[in-house]
Amino acid sequence: MKTRLCFLLAVSLLTLVKADQVFVEAEGFADLGGWSLDQQFMDQMGSPFLLAHGLGEPVKDAVTRTRFPNPGQYRVWVRTRDWVAPWKAPGSPGRFQVLINGEALAATFGIVGADWHWQDGGFVEVAQEATVALHDLTGFDGRCDAILFSSEVGFQPPNDLAGLSRLRRKLLKLPGKPDRGGSFDLVVVGGGIAGSATAVTAARLGLKVALIQDRPVLGGNGSSEVRVWPEGKVNREPYPRIGDVVSEMVAGRGPGSGNAKTSDVYEDDRKLNLVRAEPNVILLLEHRVSEVSMRKGSIRAVVAQHTRSARRVRIEGRWFADCTGDGAVGFLAGADHEVTEEGHMGASNLFNFHDTGNAAPWPKCLCKDTNAIDMVFTETSEPSSFPRCPWAVDLSDKPFPGRPASKDAAGSAPHQDLGAWHWESGFDRDPINEVEWMRDLNLRAMFGAWDTLKNVDKLYPNHKLAWAAFISGKRESRRLLGDVIIQADDFRTNRVYVDGAFPCSWHIDLHYPHPSYDKGHEGAEFISTYTRGKGYTYKDPYWAPYRALYSRNVDNLFMAGRDISVTHEALGAVRVMRTCGMMGEIVGMAASLCNKYDCSPRAVYQSHLGELQALMQRGAGKNVGAVQ
């Protein structure tokens, strides 16, 4: 009860007022309805926001109650954007209304502006209190960041991020300094498979650990939010216990395993329960790290913002592990890093379909589906329409994976290639600052494909889109540099490192635009293929070096996951999730030695490598894994 009261108090801060202005954060609404909270682009646009991700069916209203300093007339500003405007696409699919006490403002929102901005909503008369609601009109990913009411007719809120941040904190009366969140032996940022395995391993070896994750679930790409099946072989000789923690966290592959399946397949509760069972771990979900405090080349603390309440908390630590995938902590700390600006791997947003004849209610958005979807469908007598999407990628006269070569395939099951891993975009875009563009192109491609199949090819009349990830599954962005930068030729030549620490078994898997589908989409490709064959395979397991798991210039920074010290090409072999989880196990073990000897990650290699290898022989698992 105490926790709930604290949360409600924090959320209530989002509607505190100043004389003639009221600032209402969309993510702080008391009832989000069918809108989804999206935090992926906070660093670029300044805040989390609400997304009407209804797959073409309007979502339930988000509703909150707001107090005003005085009754009277207020001008309304709504921070939003027309998300298809970067492509000059017609139709403005993200349309929504703002309702005050059940009455819609005169303006319709989400219809102008390629960038995030304040759209003028006109004027409204209010009493001391009012109900405010976001009313989705389309189900096609309308988005709202905040609503601002001002009694000053000429006032216009700032669009620059610095000015907006000052206004937000001032009107919401947020504290100038972050709350104190405690001090820890190891602070792990990023709750994917790598970060979760790091936290569990370190905690079992006696460290006091904080695990910070910006989503409500753990698992990252392997969660129900993204639904990529974790790959990579674990429990390999000569260290067969490496992978035991990963095996506790992720079930072995079974008949229902794979990508873009139902939410239960990814066992979010299994990961959460495993972490919460460790008394030495403090778990901070829905917190995104945005600041780093440094002293003499070492990180002393990180500051994380709660994605609903906007409250900030300062977490101090002796050692830190960047498991964010994007190398976010290392970047803020000034760690040496690399980014492949062009020709890098992209991001995917997987999707799947549902037969309207199924007795179970068909789902409309993230993590709410309950019926089994195994990509085998039964035609029914219940037709299901889908609107034309002139704003989507026009695929009416173009091939794409899953589109039958001839229209006489009507009535057959949808092809396995629909919604699969290769729906991927952003190969030549900035993998940090243009991630919303990438996600939105993936959505435009998906809706364009389904529009084509349903309305042009007249296929699958009794099926609906069932689920689509609005959280992107990213493959490549920043890579933090360690004392060793792993090269692709290390795999090809089987180069032996004395500090070989985690086994790699995935081939050198690099993605790039598929030449069979990129015609007409140059610069905005969304279908990929991958490297294979001679030059991209090696003898597994390959034991990659520990020295790639810590920063070469930030004294107390580890990393685990796809942001470790590798080249672009070598990343193809190490980036799969079970392999990343084993990196986390090694980092947790090394951190325990840092704690034991009060030393740096580098000193573990220099002075305590034998003891690290002894820990690797013993492992940190509670269950005995089987050699695979």
Structural features, described:
The chain is an alpha+beta fold and 628 residues long. The chain has three domains: 170 residues, Galactose-binding domain-like (Jelly Rolls), CATH 2.60.120; 233 residues, FAD/NAD(P)-binding domain, CATH 3.50.50.60; 163 residues, no CATH class. It is 21% helix and 25% strand. It contains 13 helices and 29 strands. Strands 1, 2, 3, 4, 6, 9 and 11 form a seven-stranded antiparallel sheet that branches. Strands 12, 13, 14, 15, 16, 17 and 29 form a seven-stranded mixed sheet that branches. A four-stranded antiparallel sheet has the order 5-10-7-8, with no helix packed on it. It is globular. The N terminus and C terminus are likely disordered.
